[in-house]
Each structure stands twice: as structure tokens, then as C-alpha cells.
Amino acid sequence: MKIRVFIVEDEYIHLEAIKIELSEAGFELAGECRDADSAFERIKAACPDVVLVDIALPGKNNGITLAEKINRALNIPHIFTTSFSEEDVVLEAISTNPAGYLHKPVDRVNLAAAIRLAVSREVKDERTEEKPRTEPGVVFTRVGDKLLRVNIDDLLAIRADGENCIALVTARKEILCRTTLKDFCKQLPPSFIQVHRSFLINLDNLDSFNEREQTAVLKGYNVPVARSFRKSFLNSIRKV
Fold it and tell me: Which of 18, 41, 52, 232 has the least C-beta neighbours within 10 A?
């Protein structure tokens, strides 16, 4: 599977040059954006493996504030691509815990090496990190540089958000995780069933089923029930 890279770059010449280098190096373009203000939501939706971020970006935010938010909320490795070399800027950029810092124009060899190192470092961190002691009814998921405790009973649904991202849906919030629906469901009790290719629901929090709209309602959160899953869903309801 190709490594998917998202680019945040406002200068057209550099943007196109980086896209060419990515393609030639065998990477996949997950998306692009030319300003920091709208980049975060696009990155969240695309769920790339690595983000390339220019420091000097137009808008209220800049590349450093964007990178800080990516690191804190999405746990996706980022690499700065910039023309800045001033010490104070470099130190501020380092505080966001980047996986690399490349000067423009970026050459293919250094770009490819930085991306592969970023991905391999992330995999190594996930494999070697000491996991917290779990207890029944609890899972831990990574959010930024923290492992966040989630009570399974609080989950209404799990939604697939892209190829390698899921959202844990509770009555109060959604928590974005970098994993697959298939892998995460291995940790769940039998009360969770799949009702759609992109959704698992917690039957313990099911309030009603709208037959006309074919939606399961869990504390006000509506989940579509696909035709291919309807029979097993209805059978599960009868068992409750």
C-alpha cells in the first residue's frame, strides 16, 4: 500500500514541484491545501499518513499553529517544507514535534527519506510504547501525544472516516482515531454490531429504529442501516 501524503503549500510553483517529486518517488497524493485556516478539516477528512507543511501560509493561522494542532488532535506525523532558517523560527517549529524539516526547493531523495522515516518512526512508536493496563469496559486510544481512556458503555457508534481512520461517537463528542474499523471492532463486546459498511453501533444504547428512514437512533444520533445488514440487525434487536 502506498504512503499517502497531504501537502499544505501556498506557492503554486513549490506545490507542483513537490507533487511531481512525490509521484516520481512512488507516494500517493492524499490531498492539498493552500492556506492554514481550512487545511485542518481537509487533513482530518483525508486521514493521510504524513503531512507536508509550509511554515509561511496565508490566513489567521500559519504552518506552525496548524502543525501543532495536527500533532495534538490527529497524531499524524508532519514535515516542514520551508525557506526559513532563522533560529527562532526553527525552534518554534521544533516545539510542534515535527518528523522532519526540509528546505525548499525540496529534492526527491531527501523528501522520500523524510517521509519514510516519519512513517517508520510512527510504526515503531506504536509497537514499542508501553500500553496502559486495561480493565473491562475500557479501551485506550491515541489522541495527539496522549492515550485517552474511553468507556465502551459511553460509545454510541463507531464510524469509518476514510481508509485508516475511525470516529468514536459518544453523546457528547467524537474522538478521531488512526486505525481501521475492522481492527478496532476486535476490542468490542458482542453488544456492538455492524449495520453499515461504515458503521458499528452499540445495541445497549439503541433507543429506536425508524423503519421508514432505515436508521437506528442512539440518544439522538442517527445511523443508517444498510439493506445488506438489516436482517442481522433485526435479529439482534429481537435478542435484546
Answer: 41
Determine the structural domain holding residue 156 and report its residue range: 138-239
Domains contained in the chain, number = 2
Distance CA 202, CA 151 (A): 12
Can you tell me the distance from the alpha carbon of 177 to that of 193, in angstroms, rounded to the nearest whole number?
Answer: 19
Quick one: 14 and 98 in the same domain? yes
Could you list the beta-strand ranges (E) of 152-220. 155-160, 166-170, 174-177, 192-196, 199-202, 208-210, 215-218
Does residue 116 share a domain with residue 16? yes
Q: What is the CATH number of the domain that holds 22?
A: 3.40.50.2300
Which ranges in the chain belong to alpha helices (H)? 12-24, 36-46, 63-69, 87-94, 108-128, 181-184, 227-239
User: How many residues would you count in the chain?
Assistant: 240
Backbone angles phi, psi at 228, to 5 degrees: -70, -20
Give strand pairing partners of 100.
79
